[in-house]
Amino acid sequence: MGRILAIDFGKVRTGIAVTDELQIIASGLETVATKELIEFLKNYTTSENVELFVVGEPKQMDNNPSESEALIIPFLEKLKKAIPKIPIERVDERFTSKMAVQTMIDSGLSKKKRKNKALVDEISATLILQSYLYSR
């Protein structure tokens, strides 16, 4: 079995989470500058066995795509061209950023650490991945 890698795509930063090889546990991996994301994923998939990419799908409350979906579509096309052997699935990511902040509060992190947007993105990617694992 290979790992599943989740992506919480952002205009500036992108949170990355990954499972263990048995696909049981989702863990935050890193936050990457979005402009370096494809290169990061190419390097990571060269050194690790990744079976699937799970990419957050931002939706509005009425189930329509959010504005940020317009940024994700071109990224998905680049990803398919750069790493064609790994399939991509989408997961509804509504409320993941709010849930990430709440997780940080519940964990007892200080206000200063909760303002770390890179950490919020990484936790959001972990929540997306955990949601995917629960749904299958």
TrEMBL record:
InterPro entries for this protein: RNaseH-like_sf, YqgF, YqgF/RNaseH-like_dom, YqgF/RNaseH-like_dom_sf
Chief location: cytoplasm
GO molecular function, one term: nuclease activity
Location of this chain's protein in the cell: Cytoplasm
One Gene Ontology cellular component annotation held by this UniProt entry: cytosol
Signal sequence range: none
Highest taxon above the source species: Bacteria
Domain YqgF/RNase H-like: 2-100
EC number: 3.1.-.-
Keyword field contains Transmembrane helix: no
GO biological process: rRNA 5'-end processing
Xref: SUPFAM superfamilies: Ribonuclease H-like
Function: Could be a nuclease involved in processing of the 5'-end of pre-16S rRNA.
Family statement: Belongs to the YqgF HJR family.
Record-given protein name: Putative pre-16S rRNA nuclease
